[in-house]
Amino acid sequence: MAYVRPVSKTCWYLKDRNYTIHMLNELTSVFVGLYALLLLWGIGAVASGPEAYQYFLKCLASPGMLVLLWVTTIVIFYHAIAWFKVTPKAMPIQKGEEFVPGGVIAGAHYVVWILFSLVVLFLAGVF
Amino acid sequence: MAKVNKALFWSLFAAGGTLTAFVFPVLALITLFAAHGNTPEIMGFEQMQGLLANWFGKLAAFGTVSLALWHAAHRLRTALYGLGLRADGIVSVVGYGIALVGTILSAYYLVQI
Amino acid sequence: MSEVQLELEILRYDPEKDQEPHFKTYQVACREEWMILDAVNHVKDEVDTTLSYRWSCHMAVCGSCGMMIDGQPKLACKAAVKDYADKKVRIEPLANFPIERDLVVVQDDFMEKLKRVKPYIIRKEEKPIEEGEYKQSPADLKRFKQFTLCINCLCCYAACPEYALTPEFVGPAALALAHRYNADSRDQGLAERHKEISKPEGVWDCSFTDTCSIACPKHVDPASALQQLKITTTVQWYKELIGMGDK
Ligand code: SF4
Ligand code: SF4
Ligand code: FES
Question: Has this prediction a pTM greater than 0.90?
Fold first, then answer.
């Protein structure tokens, strides 16, 4: 009889560095989701008027929220970097006969991302 | 439901992942500024209201919030399955359910502005 | 001539005698330029003739010598002993497959899945021979060339955590081949393959860990093929939804 080796259903991602990185990538979704809920909250506050909105801003400044926001921001940056890094694999571009090198595609994404972010920061009045 | 429309959920996941990668970092930065007390101009109530009053602003906000929610719900579902939580049915109903409610709520809020 | 001392821990399993597999240790004095396969061959020739494993070409072409070397799926004929110098090296049969005997695994599951994705050119209507061959530009060829290089060594399956967790998953090499034919300008079988690929255990179990591509000794990049296949499958799904699905 052929022997089937057991597989751990709960710890497999600790067995290999690449699996662990993958699991961490997947878990960025926790913070992406939380931030989306925060945006939803903010939009709701704008909809209900100035007092609600001021309260929302006040909540943002609470110590617990500050910590959460810092972690969220860092994870979200990580998500963006990791996401663009693998984009060329999902969407390779062929120009004429040759494929555009993956690094060029990812790089173009990074450039557009950074420019876009700077424009938004400028329009938002940050500088 | 969760089984039949994998293509649907995956497309929302992929679109949401790309969109959040482009816009979430800068939004998070702005929020962080506001949270630290040096509130950027745009975070003022009137400016926010003005931004979300026009249809382009509404659409952008709606697309961003809802796609991000679908992205997160789908990815978290895969992650939880990977972590060994095999209650995939409940996880999908709860996760996609939150995304759906969030989508409807954001539309509801936005038309009021 | 310099030598490399290896302590090979080989997983042994005799279905007639053993309840479960166990490691056996062999000291091998290797020549510097040897591959792991040479070291295993040495064990078989000089120490224990009962050791079972597959190999044939010794040049990374036949795809039969895939095994876990120090925990990673590799072709034994492509893994240099120098990289493992003076270490204990675990040699195990490819992960995620049942063990037939020693380092030999049962491949039936893959063979069956390979058939399911219809890895051949499908035409709605064959044109008569008089009309000549189907022409293809170099760019058309390049589009899928990389995915033809697969040697069915199954290293990617051993590297795929989703295949480990969900054995129904069609898996990297078979799906990469499905993509190879979908991307072939002469092929018209996308809609037909779609039926298999769009099932939950088709392309959707892949969570894009990229580990299949890292393991692939022929740089086929199945992970890339699978993500592209997800996009094609999604587009096809939306098309069928609005009643326009057919290639
Ligand atoms: S895709 Fe690569 S690793 Fe997988 S069977 Fe083919 S050659 Fe081997
Ligand atoms: S990318 Fe997909 S097919 Fe490749 S190892 Fe990861 S889950 Fe498996
Ligand atoms: S012996 Fe043929 S691939 Fe290694």
Answer: yes
